[in-house]
Amino acid sequence: MIYIKTEAEINVLREGGKILAHILRTLIAMVKPGITTMDLENAALAMINEADGVPAFLDYPMGDDIFFPSALCISINDEVVHGSAVPNRVLKSGDIVDIDIGMEWPVSKKKQKKMGFPVNSYSKHGGYFTDMCATVGVGKISQEARKLLSVTKHSLEAAIGQAKIGNRLNDIAAAVERIVLPNYGIVRDLVGHGVGYFPHEEPDVFNYQIRHNSSENIELKEGMVIAIEPMINIGTYKVKVAKNNYTIITADGSLSAHFEHTVAITKQGPLIITA
What we know:
The protein is α+β, with helices and mostly antiparallel strands. The protein has one domain: Creatinase/methionine aminopeptidase superfamily (Creatine Amidinohydrolase, Alpha-Beta Complex), CATH 3.90.230.10. Helices cover about 25% and strands about 25% of the residues. The protein contains five helices and 17 strands. It has helices at about 5-30, 35-50, 110-115, 145-160, 170-180, and strands spanning about 55, 60-65, 65, 70-75, 80, 95-105, 130-135, 185, 190-195, 200-205, 225-230, 230-235, 240, 250, 255-260, 260-265, 270. Helix 1 (about 5-30) runs antiparallel to helix 2 and helix 4 (about 145-160) runs antiparallel to helix 5. The two termini are about 25 Å apart. The model has no long low-confidence stretch (mean pLDDT about 95).
């Protein structure tokens, strides 16, 4: 089911998205050689708590009785997504690191009432979910890595530009393909998603074009809120699951980059919730 958000709900998402963007910027500023994934995790947990939010990913069910062990997805080098902050890892010069963060906000009844916010009836906390990520270099990184980050970020920006009423999901995917192909691999086993009432909702938001007449190539409508997140590999688009059974890594060991924003479809055009 695709959930359409009201204007009031989108306004709550915008407020939460601003806070989440500030948290991510703070975490990015901390990235340097020698910092650990637990340093970033602890900082994220403290800022989310201070903001009256709860982390969206901590203890998230991954299937097969596996629950994600950290608030942050920290994916390093050939890790595409779902890298964890635990066990603790040290970031080294030359690494590229994807910091992916989601938050439900606000979660206190007092703040919801004081601000006059609508309550998300789908969540026990009553807050709304936003999701974003960015991949950054640690210390001095290679020219190849810098180009990958630039291309991936540019593909997200192009994709967001197509998030308009009346367009279809393939318009978003085509924008990614125009920037990325044929030089890099677009991950096909993972996609973006709806977001807001839950951390992950329908529809799947593809980074590659599907059949134009597919029932999944839906038309974008006012009030839809989606997480657009190109995942781009230097080598093959193929991926595999790491030994921990939840981190996704490139099949050939090549570098991978990942950028994401939560975006609302509005009459005024694409609205970046996590700006």
